[in-house]
Amino acid sequence: MQKADGMNYAPEFCGVTEKVVGPGEFTFSVIGLDHGHIYAMTNGLLEAGATLRQVYDPDEAKVQAFLSRYPQGRKAESEEEILYSDVSLVASAIRPDKRGPLAVRAMEAGKHCFVDKPGFLTMDDLEKIRDTRNRTGKKYYIYFGERVHVEGAVCTEKLIRSGAVGRVLNVTNLAPHRLNPPSRPDWFWDCSKNGTILIDIGSHQIEQFLTYSGSKTAKITCASMKNFSNPDHPGFFDYGDCMLEGDSGASCFFKVDWFTPDGMGAWGDGRTFVTGTKGCIEIRKYIDVGRSTDADHVYFTDSEGEHLIEAHGKYGFPYFGAIILDCINNTDLAIEPEKTLEAMRLAIEASETVLRRRYHER
Q1: Cα–Cα dist 322/150, whole Å
Q2: What is the pLDDT of residue 12?
Q3: For residue 304, how far is the Cα from the chain centroid?
Q4: pLDDT band at 30 (very low <50, low <70, confident <90, very high)
Q5: Which residues of 66-104 are buried (b: 16+ CB within 10 A; e: fewer)?
Q6: Does the N-terminal peptide bond of residue 118 adopt cis geometry, omega within 30 degrees of 0?
């Protein structure tokens, strides 16, 4: 599995995968191949037992590349061919500004929906998705991969739920990414099409905070975005940070940027720190700089001492199986539906707060 390019990072579980359904029991198709995360999303669903039916994208080269990886799928001639088929779920990594409208169309057509992050870019999209979800009864999921597709993060959630750290007081996320400009499509640099850095990468961090702290909502206390090194793209932001306070009483700080050095062996040295009343956790998600190129190192301290959990290959990715079972049984085991929307709402609010301030300063 390549780790140099985050856009095409597609984890695969190296242990024994637990399939929650048999062949053909839960089917999905793919619409939109604009971002490489669709490969990660597809891997997760297939490993949990889902069956891939069709794929559609107007770019024939992207479709053929996808089918070469997943030959069990078939090419669809149009989006409508998939929307009005009998598949259970539509997965998509279409361009971010198109994800909200596609999710509405998919749910209106009777399909559950699973989109890459950011799931949508505007508050108007949020309300339309919430209304459509509630009215149709269909499930809506976002691929927040930095939590659901990282075994160190899965391990950390289990530790927190077991009470190992006591009450969570603070979550701090450091999420640098590698920019790799030649690989980026034109829409990547346009915030109206891709979202700002606080929406794109920041939504990951907010979702982790809500999950780990048990907060149902939060308020933005501080946020900033800068463009330090991309003068050719004046509307682009390559750095952002944000502070939040959850209704649980826990606080959060996160930093996101596009400054991963070329010499690093992973696309980003992603780290999460959890401080609780009884213990502390650090996740070194993708690499342990200068020590190991392996992923999923969980450092945990409590009253008993210091612990290192090498989580890779041991915890799997239960989120994907939970999605399938939720769609079948009408449960909400994978994630609380409102938390998905709240993470995006807060990311959009943080971004809009910064943009309004910049406008007024001018």
Answers
A1: 16
A2: 72
A3: 34
A4: very high
A5: bbeeeeebeebeebeebbeeebbbbbbbbbbbbbbebbb
A6: yes
pTM above 0.90, yes or no: yes
Of residues 264, 253, 187, 175, the one with CA closest to residue 218: 253
Neighbouring-strand partners of residue 292: 288
What total of structural domains would you count in the chain?
Answer: 2
**Residue 245 shares a structural domain with residue 137:** no
Range of the domain at 235: 147-316+349-356
- What are the structure tokens assigned to 101, written together? 């409208």
Beta-carbon count within 10 A of 48 CB: 24
Q: Are residues 99 and 175 both part of a single domain?
A: no
Domain shared by 291 and 327, yes or no: no
Is the same domain home to 125 and 160? no
Residue 77 falls inside a structural domain: yes
- Judge whether residue 361 has pLDDT over 90: no
Task: Please say whether the beta carbons of 111 and 83 come within 8 A.
Answer: yes
Residues 179 and 232 in one domain: yes
Q: Tell me the average pLDDT of the chain.
A: 95
Instruction: Identify the CA nearest to 139 among candidates 208, 182, 91.
Output: 91
Q: Please check whether residue 362 lies inside any domain of the structure.
A: no
Residue 109 has pLDDT above 60, yes or no: yes
Assess whether 103 and 157 both reside in one domain: no
Q: Which two tokens stand for residue 32?
A: 């939109």
My answer on whether 201 and 228 are in the same domain is: yes
Is residue 299 assigned to a domain? yes
Amino acid identity for residue 157 in this structure: E
Q: Which amino acid is at 230?
A: N
